[in-house]
Amino acid sequence: MAKYLISFPSAAMVVSGAELAAAGQDAHAVIEAAKAAGVYVFGGGIDEGVPPVRVSASGAAVEGGYPWAPPITGGFTVLEVPTREEALSWAVRMAAACRCDQELRVFGSDAQSVTTEEPRDESRP
Length: 125
Fold this sequence. Notes:
Strand order of the largest sheet: 2-5-1-6
Largest sheet: 4 strands, antiparallel
Strand content: 15-25%
Protein name: Transcription initiation protein
Distance between the termini: 31 Å
Organism: Leptothrix discophora
Keywords: Signal
InterPro entries: Dimeric_a/b-barrel (IPR011008)
């Protein structure tokens, strides 16, 4: 199965104050449905009040992102699903909930980056 990123930049979400609370509730409902379906990996939003830090290969750290790139803002969700069609289906649900277009991207596969978790023994505390 592949992992997919569903995301939007902050500027894409043009929702009135009254509608913002409903959009948040609807987005959370989609997340809960993804959790119930066992496809939710993680998600959240970029805290735009905390500036990024760019770290060089030498270890030097400078406040701010790449000066030539647009800032990364907004919200995102990562899902793991068997097909692109299923990922598109979830993106449609998220777009409707957030009241704005969503971008769908697939993560490339890298065997070194894959983690495996030991099955939990439910009989042990």
